[in-house]
Design brief:
Layout: E1 6-10, H1 14-26, E2 30-34, H2 37-49, E3 56-60, H3 70-77, E4 86-91, H4 95-104, E5 113-116, H5 121-129
Parallel strand pairs: 1-2, 1-3, 3-4, 4-5
Helix pairs in contact: 2-3
Amino acid sequence: MNTRPKIVVAEDELIWRVSISDFLVDQECDVKLAESAGELVAKARSAFEAGEPGPVLIVDGRLPSIQMEGIEAVGQLRESMPAGTKCILISVLSEDDCRSKLAACGIPPRSYVWLQKPFDFDIMLQLIQS
């Protein structure tokens, strides 16, 4: 049985998407990439339906999209997330700057971890492994 962490990284900026992915692959994680909120929803739901244990979502909170931003996509996925799913929201903005959007999307403060860009990838890894 494969026990490598399953991670979906949703980030529109290529440099961040590739850097995070390369780092996590080097840490022996299985990584799926999404560059839009719609792609995030599709890949996360696929992981949930496959019964993958405790997938981790790393989502750019301001992920631009015609349909929705990253925060809105997480809000949409919240009800279908299996137990043990971790959500790490990343953004150049502070958590305080996005607090009202998080609340409007029904995302309670204790259901995610916020990392402000730029952040230390080792801290991100600790959050994944905790």
